[in-house]
Structure formats: C-alpha cells, structure tokens
Amino acid sequence: MRTAVVYYSYSGNTHRVGQLIIGVLKSKGEDGIPVRIRPLKEEVSFIKQCRDAFMRKKPKIYRTMLDLKDYDRIILGSPVWAFNAAPAISTYLEECRSIEGKEAICFVTYGSGAGKDKTLKAMKEKLTERGAKVVAEVSFQQNEGLESCREKLEKIL
C-alpha cells in the first residue's frame, strides 16, 4: 500500500510523529511518503498562529503534492491550536485532489489536550466530505514517549 503522510509542524512535534509513521510503515513493508505542508508566508509568532487557527484563516501554501492520485491512503496530521487544526492543514484539505475513495487516518499532536477531540472530528468531517474513508484517528501528547507513540501506531496501521 502506498501512503502519503501529510502533516504540518511548527515546533517539530508533529514532524516527529510523521517520521515515526514512515518508520512503522516501512517496518511493515509499506511505502510511506512524507509531505510536509508549509505556508508561503509563515507567521513566526506562535500566538499569531493560534489566532489564525481560531479565526479559521486559510493561508496560501507551497504547492506540495496536492494531487493524491498515486496513493492508496492518506495520513493527515496537525498540531492542535486554539481548538483547531493548523491553518495550513485547512488549506491543504481544501486544495488537495484525487482524495475520493482513499483510506484516511487523522492524527493530532497537542500540549494540554484541550480541543484535540474537536480537531480530530473536524479533520475527519472534512476528509469524509471530500470523499475519503476515515478508518482511524489518533492523538499524541507532546511529551509522549516514542515507544508509546509507536504502540498506538502499530494498532492502527
């Protein structure tokens, strides 16, 4: 199975999980391709990033692999900011193509945990609206150990 692991990471936590997913897929003999989403003009202030997430702004992003036709599955990841996914992920969900009928998994990384369920639900709803079949969702606390993260991933991949 060929999987696109699409994520946005500001501090590195979501990137760490994205790379762990690639490793777990590889250990199962599957092909996982990392796709790191980046806004064209990224706000450097975390507070301003959270404000943009709260206001549901959708920044322009680099045109990184928007067409998913060559993939069987998409794994979509975001940090939780102000009870929402990162704005760049919202843009990606609007602009990606060939998602209909694909298997999908959502994951979030978080600090306090406030808003993680709401964020996963919103990501799942958007993927479903676009025609994907969401088969799993999972969350990772920012200080969660790698072994615990790996165990969660082994159960859903």
List keywords for this structure.
157 residues, alpha/beta, Rossmann fold, six-stranded mixed sheet, 5 helices, 6 strands, globular
**Morphology call:** globular
* Spatial gap, N to C terminus: 11 Å
What are the secondary-structure elements, in order, as H or E? Answer: EHEHEEHEHEH
CATH fold annotation: Rossmann fold
The residue-averaged pLDDT reads 90
> What is Rg?
14 Å
Oligomer: single chain
Total number of beta strands = 6
Biggest β-sheet description: 6 strands, mixed
The CATH homologous superfamily is named Flavodoxin domain
Structural class: alpha/beta
Q: What is the count of distinct domains?
A: 1
State the low-pLDDT regions, or none.
none
What does this structure look like?
The chain is of the alpha/beta class and 157 residues long. The chain has a single domain, classed as Rossmann fold, CATH 3.40.50.360. 37% of the residues lie in helices and 25% in strands. Strands 1, 2, 3, 4, 5 and 6 form a 6-stranded mixed sheet that branches. Helix 1 crosses helix 5 (146-156). The N and C termini lie close together (11 Å). The mean pLDDT is 90.
Element layout with pairings:
Blueprint: E1 2-7, H1 13-27, E2 31-36, H2 46-54, E3 73-81, E4 84-85, H3 87-95, E5 103-110, H4 116-129, E6 133-141, H5 146-156
Parallel strand pairs: 1-2, 1-3, 3-5, 5-6
Antiparallel strand pairs: 3-4
Helix pairs in contact: 1-5
